[in-house]
Write a structure and sequence with these properties.
Elements: E1 3-7, H1 11-22, E2 26-31, E3 42-45, H2 47-55, H3 59-64, E4 71-75, E5 81-86, H4 87-90, E6 98-101, H5 102-111, E7 118-121, E8 125-131, E9 134-139, E10 145-147, E11 149-152, H6 159-165, E12 172-185, E13 193-199, E14 202-208, E15 214-222, H7 233-243, H8 251-258, E16 265-272, E17 278-279, E18 282-284, H9 287-290, H10 299-316, H11 321-340, H12 342-350, H13 355-367, H14 374-389
Parallel strand pairs: 1-2, 1-11, 2-7, 4-13, 11-18
Antiparallel strand pairs: 3-6, 4-5, 8-9, 9-10, 12-15, 12-16, 13-14, 14-15, 17-18
Length: 405
């Protein structure tokens, strides 16, 4: 039986473990965090990814745990409403698309795999060495082990990618913006509502998926790359406070809540672009290989589909991992590139450059319900995402025992 080490226990890693086990492989998942990571932010599952979730038998439960967001409200610096739109249109969702909290999806995937997949929490890979028998893997805490294949499903700043392919600066393409998200008290008592306050070069949001004690604060801002600050939490918070100093609405209160947030997150909005997603017996999947950035809205869907295709192609290759990796890349790359192209256009609408553009956008949102051809306008807005999300056919990969690599 082919032993596969998967680095990363989030969406891509757990999904790959599910399908690898289904195809007769023996997957082990190594996760740096000491336990499953709760919370996170809202994520979308669209198009082809819904088919993957359905084939896993999880679609009904995913829909049951959907956010059920209702409305997005845009407000000025004094909190006065400037425009509204439905949550579905705001998120670019159509048809059966589902929005769910990232932590909820990760828990569902873990529950679907934990009984027949080995999970190593609180552990990290420190070295990879290919041998005639496979890949000898060194760990931060445990003894070395040898696996037939190693897959990096460990996100934008992938450790496996750095070890097997080189410095991330070769592959990360900064899109000129940063994002910050963290939990705050729900002092506005929001209930399935998203609030947005745009300003030139900056945008602040707050949302809650149900009326309760907690909400999420979101900050988007135009900025140059700041890689040297990625691991300096104190400097990240200082940066956010500096960028949004003097902004109105609820911003001062949200920044005050930042210090107590248990899940503060700030990072560049960047894409991963690579010529190849495999090297020898090591390959990448999800954000580690082709992260499209949060601006695309398609990172989760690419992770789900990519994991499904990778496991299926390895199984069809019947032990020839080189052929399996190559087939995976041929099948996924056009889908990835089409979804990555969404990010640049989406960012233009998320962070507006001038007060004049903000006024124009708010005017159009207010007028839209009364404009002739409103439905056609909405269709045109949603069409690029829908087209990209369905730009791959989910094939059948018959379950079969995989031969040793």
């Amino acid at each position: 039986m082919t032993n596969i080490l998967i680095s990363g226990g989030s969406v891509a890693g757990a999904t790959l473990a599910f399908w690898a086990r289904r195809h007769g492989f023996n997957p082990t998942v190594v996760e740096r965090a000491p336990a499953l990571r709760d919370g996170g932010y809202k994520i979308d599952i669209r198009g082809a990814a819904l088919e993957v979730v359905d084939r896993m038998g999880l679609l009904d439960e995913v829909r049951r745990r959907g956010t059920d967001m209702r409305i997005a409200r845009f407000v000025d610096a004094k909190g006065r409403q400037m425009a509204t739109m439905s949550a579905q249109l705001f998120g670019g969702r159509t048809g059966g698309d589902v929005e769910i909290m990232r932590g909820d999806l990760v828990h569902l995937l873990y529950e679907a795999t934990r009984n027949d997949v080995e999970y190593l929490f609180g552990e990290s890979i420190t070295g990879l060495q290919e041998t005639p028998d496979g890949v000898r893997v060194s760990f931060e805490n445990g003894p070395p082990r040898t696996f037939d294949l190693v897959i990096g499903a460990d996100g934008l700043h992938s450790n496996v990618r750095a070890l097997a392919f080189g410095a991330e600066s070769r592959f990360l393409h900064h899109l000129g913006h940063h994002i910050s998200i963290f939990t705050v008290p729900n002092h506005l008592r929001l209930d399935r509502t998203e609030m947005m306050h745009p300003a030139p070069g900056r945008s602040v949001g707050m949302y809650a998926t149900r009326q309760g004690d907690d909400a999420k604060a979101m900050f988007f801002f135009a900025s140059p790359p700041r890689a040297h600050e990625r691991r300096d939490l104190g400097r990240q918070k200082q940066l956010l406070a500096e960028v949004f100093a003097g902004q109105g609405w609820e911003v001062p209160r949200l920044l005050d809540a930042m210090e107590a947030a248990p899940d503060f997150y700030l990072d560049s909005i960047s894409q991963v672009r690579m010529d190849h997603w495999s090297s020898g017996r090591v390959a990448l999947v999800g954000d580690a290989a082709y992260g499209p950035s949060p601006a695309s809205g398609q990172g989760t869907s690419l992770a789900l589909v990519g994991a499904y295709v990778l496991a299926g192609r390895l199984a069809l290759a019947a032990g020839d991992h080189t052929a399996g990796f190559a087939a995976y890349e041929r099948e996924m790359r056009p889908f990835v590139e089409q979804n990555q192209r969404l990010a640049a256009s989406n960012l233009k609408g998320m962070v507006l450059k001038s007060a004049a553009r903000i006024r124009f956008q708010m005017l159009m949102l207010r007028l839209m319900p009364r404009l002739p051809g409103r439905d056609r306008m909405i269709e045109r807005i949603a069409e690029p995402i829908r087209t990209a999300a369905t730009a791959i056919t989910i094939k059948d990969y018959p379950a079969r025992p995989a031969q040793p690599s």
